[in-house]
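Margin note from the TA: students keep mixing up input and output lines. Inputs are the sequences; the output is the structure of the whole complex. Example:
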Amino acid sequence: MSGNAPKKKGEASRRILRAAEELFAAKGFAAVSVRDIAQLAEVNKALVFYYYENKATLLRKVLEQYYTSHAEALSPADPTTSLREQVHALLTSYLDFIEDNSRYIHIVQHELLANGENVGMIREGMNLLFSRVQEVLADMAGDGPLHVRHFFLSFSGLVVAYFTYAPALDEIWDGDPLSASNRRERREHLHWVIDQLLSGMEANQA
Amino acid sequence: MSGNAPKKKGEASRRILRAAEELFAAKGFAAVSVRDIAQLAEVNKALVFYYYENKATLLRKVLEQYYTSHAEALSPADPTTSLREQVHALLTSYLDFIEDNSRYIHIVQHELLANGENVGMIREGMNLLFSRVQEVLADMAGDGPLHVRHFFLSFSGLVVAYFTYAPALDEIWDGDPLSASNRRERREHLHWVIDQLLSGMEANQA
DNA sequence: AAATGTGTTGACCGAGCGGTTAACGATTGA
DNA sequence: TCAATCGTTAACCGCTCGGTCAACACATTT
């Protein structure tokens, strides 16, 4: 009688996780109800608690999933290329990852802002990414205001800002900032920016 | 009988607004209850609705308040100084504002991420800030990836990232990233960064 | 055929939510 | 002096929240 699509067994668990991911990214943990998740997943609410202990666990599982793919996405540096190229390659792979997983940074930012209980896991992700940047930049960077950590944070900020502020940029951008061509242009800008920074670091070294 | 401090009349309204501001910044709109606000303001819950129509209005009033001071904080460019100095002055005043109103960006980011109903007001704030940047940078910037809007967004990202990611940076920073000396060092880094970008823009112009 | 285990369900729970209301004391103005 | 207004309160409302539970369908094992 119902118009529901036939549900394969065993996939309910994954559907719940995907729905939770989508909603947490869009509205933040606190603004999402378990009922919302169940409805989007086309699943009975009680089933959510059958597969996941509680709402908080659901968020943790979503983050864990990302943590894994985040680690995989960071391809190791290719030592046969120049440092400049290595940095550009790192930026490219980071942008690729974020474009493919735009929900990830939304959830991460939500958690960071709310100073939730999962900041520890996020910190691990940051440390991982930092060690990769350090690997490549350690020799070029300097001390104090030119310490690697500042460049790491600046890179992160440059990349992430675009996605965070997009909803408020449409007037300035004169259209959807997230369109394919605009994203491409933004990438070019970012590569240009780190090029200037790399030049500055080289000059400082000499 | 109660240990409550004597409350001057008329200040209850402001106390509510301040409490709301503090809590919205710390936990986000959805995660804050009117009871929380009333308790922090040491005020009866019903009084919140006496002064403010509802919870959403309270958030709007908080944002309006910031919108005003944000506009005031942007001192006009001093045409007697060089463009470089004008850009540095703009960065400094933006950093000053954000350090004095760190709750502001937290609330703004929360709203942007949640794509709430107040994005319109935030957009106005962004447009305002953008026009100031454009004023100073219009002649230097170029087209496509070197368009002013990209520099505007990059500046914003560079500045804001520090405050957003601070809670997850303590291991990398080897201590509180928000300490006075670390904030000073970060400022120096940012001035160094925009110096490199300005050099790049000049080179591109030639 | 009986027993067992797994996935799924609707009905239910207490707690907390945003918001309302009627009444009260203090202040003010006629 | 009396009435009106203002700031404040406790009690209450309907509703949604996260989470539980007993029962059920169904497949597998004994």
